[in-house]
Amino acid sequence: MSQPEFDVIAIGNAIVDVMAPCSDALVEELGMVRGGMTLIDTERAHSLYDAMGPAREISGGSAANTLAGLAALGAKCAFIGQVADDQLGEVFAHDIRAGGISFGTAPRAGDPPTARCLIFVTPDGQRTMNTFLGASQYLPAAALDEAAIRAASVLYLEGYLWDPEEPRAAMRRAIAAAKDAGRKVAFTLSDAFVIERHGADFRAMIETGEIDILFANHVELAALTGHDDFDKGLAELAPKVPVLVVTRSEKGAVAVTGGERFEVPAEPIDQVVDTTGAGDLFAAGFLFGHVRGWKVADCLTTGAICAAEIISHYGARPEADLKALVAARIG
Amino acid sequence: MSQPEFDVIAIGNAIVDVMAPCSDALVEELGMVRGGMTLIDTERAHSLYDAMGPAREISGGSAANTLAGLAALGAKCAFIGQVADDQLGEVFAHDIRAGGISFGTAPRAGDPPTARCLIFVTPDGQRTMNTFLGASQYLPAAALDEAAIRAASVLYLEGYLWDPEEPRAAMRRAIAAAKDAGRKVAFTLSDAFVIERHGADFRAMIETGEIDILFANHVELAALTGHDDFDKGLAELAPKVPVLVVTRSEKGAVAVTGGERFEVPAEPIDQVVDTTGAGDLFAAGFLFGHVRGWKVADCLTTGAICAAEIISHYGARPEADLKALVAARIG
């Protein structure tokens, strides 16, 4: 096994977030699932955008956010994801490359346009996401840079992208390539709806040992295991994956590895402005520590620091100097 | 003269700001004029964007920012400006309409794309702007909604837009329409470079009484009058315009009207994050008070409150509840 060229390579949705504050009443009125992620079609995208207040555009996408955090911490990263050949595609590509991340997937010509996520942020900081997948769902297996995948310590996959057919096939091929090269595969379950549709796939991948590091939140843990009780769910899943990381919002996070359980509280924070990307950045912090061979407790703390930074401002890409924030805490 | 339908109608650049923090060294390295506004062509836009860090997109444009502030304060506003038929054009149109501002200018088909301003924000909060005017410079006189102009208490014009030929002709026609309907014309000088190129036009318009309310900062006052001494410049210009408003950054602002001079200090602020839009929002606050018939001192204070809000965060569109901020101070 040659020296890895990248710490982490990720396959994920290539999305630009369109974000605006909104009232609790508007979430209700528009019939949105508060705090959730809903896939929307063109028509719904237009009607929701019309109902949205003045917004800002910030690159997003779950795995891409995680890479942005990893790169900010100092990791060497690469991204694979599909944008269209349009202005928002240029914005996404610029932002990810400007973060120091290698991104070589060619833009897709013609319709549909680049994916966008309409994010309504209520006064409590909770985000309600409506995703128009656009070009992102057409990532073809041919777009994979298998040499790069074989040259990365960790292949990180976003559960959201397991839903559309072409990217799912691409991700299966990527897993095979990573495994063949002796690399680790990390997977984030992303959302309960993905588990509802593809839970059987995920359980099979876990049983066959294809997933080395699994990220979930407490809702996804329950959806995957069928146990509403957190500890029961954890006890069932943990023996099946080498590293299991479960985030619990304001209750902090838990990791189980080698039969040992580690826990970290949530970082104190003045004001939760926008929770978009909290899980993504937790994963960034944890993975960074993991690829650097840090103690599990330090990996968790790093995840908590990154998550706290991201929810203190609008958008799911880091603004503060994550490296300095972490260095101040972890020797 | 019929009851006005709008408080303020503005003609301005229809621009999306692309903003990123940057180091002082990068401003130097890229050969940018720190704190200034420079017009750039396609090639320079590409090279500067390549050098820029991960960014966010927020609608901008000087006069459009002023309207966003006015509308947030409760004024009825309309905007005239040219976007292209592209994604950033949709973003601009959405944001201005979502702010409650009437915007009917049809998007322009084909190249060039919608205007964008690449804004580099240094650690002191100073913004250095690089504007690619794109479609914005092709606003034709035919795009004017003369009925709306005649139905607005104030026609507000952005000096930046005096530079390109077509919008200049459109603005001259708009002034004639507003004057013919017995409305007021407000003008912001925008930047010293505009005065260098078009100072003769501006001085002529002032002499002939076409401008009722003139906004400038201290640098523009000096450029227009040729007096480096603030008080000398003010003394020369003030008798020629019914209302003269001059902002002085951290020194606050001055208004002279009816031979009387009024002054307001800058509002105290915890941290200057990004000065983009400070002048635009000062104008918004002042104009709001003016159209409501407030005392001059209160108009100035409202301007200072709005300017302080805008420099406390990224972007030139208000985020806090301006109406509440002003109501807390002005009875």
In short:
Chain A has 12 helices and 14 strands. With 331 residues, the first copy, chain A, is α/β, with parallel strands linked by helices.
Written description of the protein model:
Two copies of one chain form a homodimer. The first copy, chain A, is an alpha/beta fold and 331 residues long. Chain A has a single domain, classed as UDP-N-acetylmuramoyl-L-alanine:D-glutamate ligase. Helix content of chain A is 39%, strand content 21%. In chain A, the strands form two sheets. The first copy, chain A, has a nine-stranded mixed sheet with strand order 6-5-1-9-10-11-12-13-14, with helices on both faces. The first copy, chain A, has a five-stranded mixed sheet with strand order 3-8-7-2-4. Chain A is globular. At the A-B interface, strand 4 and helix 4 of A face strand 4 and helix 4 of B.
Can you tag this structure with a few keywords?
12 helices; 331 residues; 5-stranded mixed β-sheet; alpha/beta; globular; UDP-N-acetylmuramoyl-L-alanine:D-glutamate ligase
Q: Can you tell me the residue ranges of chain A where pLDDT is under 50 for at least 5 consecutive residues? A: none
Mean pLDDT rating of chain A: 96
- The protein's oligomeric status is homodimer
The most extensive contact between chains is: A-B, 26 and 26 residues
Going by CATH, what is the homologous superfamily of chain A? Ribokinase
Beta-strand segment tally of chain A = 14
- CATH architecture identity of chain A: 3-Layer(aba) Sandwich
Radius of gyration of chain A: 18 Å
Distance between the termini of chain A: 30 Å
Number of helices of chain A: 12
Residue share in helix of chain A: 25-40%
> Element order, helices and strands of chain A?
EEHEHEHEHEEEHEHEHEHHEEEHHH
What percent strand of chain A? 15-25%
Number of domains in the coordinates of chain A? 1
Shape of chain A: globular
Which fold name fills CATH's third level, the topology of chain A?
Answer: UDP-N-acetylmuramoyl-L-alanine:D-glutamate ligase
Q: What strand line-up does the widest sheet of chain A have? A: 6-5-1-9-10-11-12-13-14
CATH secondary-structure class of chain A: Alpha Beta
